[in-house]
């Protein structure tokens, strides 16, 4: 199996399953694809799924005999979409907008083989961010630095980002960006895992 992602969180999740895999990050223009999906009227689920599908298909084209797992995640709050921030000022803006509000994570996966997606799904988690002062945000971003640029919403909840929240509803793997239980079930159906 190949994981078409550079996310260390997704790699860690997959490593914990004991499934042998290689990591070959897909190189797609995520922002351009997101704009295209949104222009066609696609919401957060469609964006996350479109990105996951594109990653899986790109890597599958060069490795047709392997199962390729593409994954992506976006956050949404009050009609706005949040992806990975491009820089620390953008991260501060995202965190300010999410402060004191509930937002939803849309975590999508697509499993391809032979250039065909055989399974895809989107899972959700709802997170309540506690109200954050400007001073706290500055101190937080000063501590986590560039790590804030690696996740939708500008936090990595598996690390210091956990301090930003007052309530979380959803499974652990969805929050980390890889809805694991549906993926394992799909692999069993494909006889890629023992039943």
UniProtKB/TrEMBL annotation:
Q: Name its GO BP terms in alphabetical order.
A: nucleotide metabolic process
Identify the main location.
cytoplasm
State the UniProt keywords alphabetically: Cytoplasm, Hydrolase, Nucleotide metabolism
Q: Which domain of life is it from?
A: Bacteria
Q: Does the record bear Acyltransferase in its keywords?
A: no
EC number, as in UniProt: 3.6.1.9
Active site as annotated: 72
Query: Where would you find this protein in the cell?
Result: Cytoplasm
Any GO MF annotation of the entry: nucleoside triphosphate diphosphatase activity
Any one cellular-component term (Gene Ontology): cytoplasm
InterPro entries in alphabetical order: ITPase-like_fam (IPR029001), Maf-like (IPR003697)
Write down the chemical reaction(s) this protein catalyses: a 2'-deoxyribonucleoside 5'-triphosphate + H2O = a 2'-deoxyribonucleoside 5'-phosphate + diphosphate + H(+); a ribonucleoside 5'-triphosphate + H2O = a ribonucleoside 5'-phosphate + diphosphate + H(+)
* Function as written in the Swiss-Prot or TrEMBL entry: Nucleoside triphosphate pyrophosphatase. May have a dual role in cell division arrest and in preventing the incorporation of modified nucleotides into cellular nucleic acids.
Q: Which family does it belong to?
A: Belongs to the Maf family.
**PANTHER family named among the record's database cross-references:** BIFUNCTIONAL DTTP/UTP PYROPHOSPHATASE/METHYLTRANSFERASE PROTEIN-RELATED (PTHR43213), BIFUNCTIONAL DTTP_UTP PYROPHOSPHATASE_METHYLTRANSFERASE PROTEIN-RELATED (PTHR43213:SF5)
> What name does UniProt use for this protein?
Nucleoside triphosphate pyrophosphatase
User: What organism does the UniProt record list as the source?
Assistant: Methylocystis heyeri
The organism's lineage? Bacteria, Pseudomonadati, Pseudomonadota, Alphaproteobacteria, Hyphomicrobiales
């Amino acid at each position: 199996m190949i994981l078409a992602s550079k996310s260390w969180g997704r790699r860690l999740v997959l490593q914990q399953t004991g499934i042998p895999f290689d990591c070959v990050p897909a190189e797609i223009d995520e922002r351009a694809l997101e704009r295209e999906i949104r222009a066609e009227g696609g919401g957060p689920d469609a964006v996350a799924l479109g990105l996951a599908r594109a990653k899986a298909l790109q890597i599958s084209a060069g490795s047709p005999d392997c199962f390729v797992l593409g994954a992506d995640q976006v956050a949404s709050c009050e009609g706005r979409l949040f992806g990975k921030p491009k820089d620390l000022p953008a991260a501060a803006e995202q965190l300010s907008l999410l402060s004191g509000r509930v937002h939803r994570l849309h975590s999508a996966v697509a499993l391809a083989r032979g250039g065909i997606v055989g399974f895809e799904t989107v899972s959700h988690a709802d997170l309540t961010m506690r109200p954050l002062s400007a001073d706290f945000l500055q101190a937080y971003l000063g501590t986590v630095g560039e790590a804030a640029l690696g996740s939708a919403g500008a936090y990595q909840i598996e690390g210091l980002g956990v301090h930003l929240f007052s309530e979380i509803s959803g499974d652990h793997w969805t929050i980390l960006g890889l809805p694991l239980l549906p993926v394992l079930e799909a692999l069993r159906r494909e006889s890629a895992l023992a039943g």
